[in-house]
Batch of 2 targets.
Target 1
Amino acid sequence: QVQLQESGPGLVKPSQTLSLTCRVSGGSINSGNYYWSWIRQPAGKGLEWIGHIYSSGSAKYNPSLKSRVTILVDTSKTQFSLKLSSVTAADTAIYYCARNSDSSGYRPHFDYWGRGTLVTVSS
Amino acid sequence: QSVLTQPPSASGAPGQRVTIPCSGSSSNIGSNYVYWYQQVPGTAPKLLVYKSDQRPSGVPDRFSGSKSGTSASLAISGLRSEDEADYYCAAWDDSLIGPVFGGGTKLTVL
């Protein structure tokens, strides 16, 4: 059974960089055609796709966040990470990591999710 | 403002059938599959329907999805108290070049 677990600081100051890691267990990031994704949800609001990465290191980002986002993968550690720079209060949200099992990565087929981690942007 | 439009709330009595609509455009629902997620408050979303009308293993057949043109819907029959949750539709958007979600519909079981 695949499990994903987010980790990282719960509080980030405005203008700084948010950094989160997602550890994958019960399966390898390298095996299969999966896209490892980040999705966020502000309190009481809907879901927003941030981006995804393939095991090869090829990443794709939400155009609205592209200038501030970097997603990296470390296959040896079976984890992938998210960096979001120049954060503001608008970036306060629950951040989820998820596995997209669509072979093309072009369909939102998120079949495994982490439990989510709340990140608050505040001074 | 979400790219896909859902009503903020829906309700039904136990045992009844309820339908949750999701409206989009030619660049998303009109040309791509629709996915549905169920999110119980305080937990991560769960995949409920994929490729517009397919159910992952373990999802009861009380849940069914359909799509027509630029709209889609999720139907839940034999409503149960444990169905009370938020429901989100999602689809790839060819213009935005990424997946987009609806704003979510909060289902209340009366």
Target 2
Amino acid sequence: QKEVEQNSGPLSVPEGAIASLNCTYSDRGSQSFFWYRQYSGKSPELIMFIYSNGDKEDGRFTAQLNKASQYVSLLIRDSQPSDSATYLCAVRGGYQKVTFGTGTKLQVIP
Amino acid sequence: DGGITQSPKYLFRKEGQNVTLSCEQNLNHDAMYWYRQDPGQGLRLIYYSQIVNDFQKGDIAEGYSVSREKKESFPLTVTSAQKNPTAFYLCASIQGQTLTGELFFGEGSRLTVL
């Protein structure tokens, strides 16, 4: 079982729709969780991080964490073509180890 | 401005040569990381360090070595034992003692073996 799993996609949504990205993790002791956006050939940029159960909202983005079920999700409301990128989920576990999933490619169709 | 500086941005290597990638941060972060990314793939952890003079192997450490002699510096050496070193290498750091720490990345180093 991989430590962090994401659906590789591509996930296609029409412009203005809600995009839902999911991530599951195996280590129950994981402490904090990150969502990054990465454009081709560029370094990942942080969208949000979350460490408490529940929802965390920032503009068009909402991160949801459910530690009992070991999943974290990212919702993007009013999706724009500029949101088209690969979204990486990362999990911070014991000894400060930070592990990434393989990423989900999002395509927003104008 | 605080941040992470990686150098060089592009590097070409002949087979059999060792190369060292530099990573320097002025964020006063405790923990530092090296990741490798292949085309169309996610980030795979090579090595990480929580504090000075201590580091741990990640998931793909074979053929790589690191040192952490100073808090702000975490260089990565790609040795000749690494059979397929062509990749995009990313350095990152985080404030180690808090759950609210954000993981910051450098701009990356792209290594090509000729």
